[in-house]
Amino acid sequence: MNTHEFLNRHNSSSRYFEGGSLCIWGNWFGRPMDNFHKLDAVSFDKELNKLTLSFDNKERLTVWNAENITDTKGYFQIDKADKVLWEWYYYEKPQTEENIFFEEYESIGDTINFKTNVNWYKKSHIDLTSKKPAVFMA
Q: Which domain of life does the UniProt lineage start with (predicted)?
């Protein structure tokens, strides 16, 4: 389905996806099935072709130029995108600006570029692959 169809479904009584663990281009946020992010709201900026999913704990997933969205009771998937930004507050700390962290992924051809402001771990670029879905949640 396209972005508009997903937005309409989410905002209606036929909403399927409720939340899950997050994987971006093959990289899990935390360990697989370790975190559950409950979906609260969905918005779409038509001018920028930007889909934003807001979750509990004020987490936010922003996807530019999302293509081929699958929305089921068991999982949510976006096959392709130009860019994905995941933002969250450092867990168990006050939700203040200095505690906002991000992971930014950008698809350029077959390469996925990665940036973050996280300073307590390093994510391997080797694991990033454009052959995996841009976003997968289950």
A: Bacteria
105 CB-contact burial (10 Å; exposed 0-12 / middle 13-18 / buried 19+): buried
Q: What is the 3-state secondary structure (H, E, C) of the chain?
A: CCHHHHHHHHCCCCCCCCEECEEECCEECCCCCCCCEEEEEEEEECCCCEEEEEEHHHCEEEEECCEEEEECCCCEEEEECCEEEEEEECCCCCCCHHHEEEEEEEEECCEEEEEECCCCCCCCHHHCCCCCCCEEEC
Burial letters for 48-68: b for 16+ Cβ neighbours within 10 Å, e otherwise?
A: eebbebbbeeebbbbbbbbee
Q: Which pTM does this prediction carry?
A: 0.92
Digit-coded pLDDT (tens) for 80-134: 999 999 999 988 888 889 899 999 999 999 899 999 998 776 665 557 888 999 9
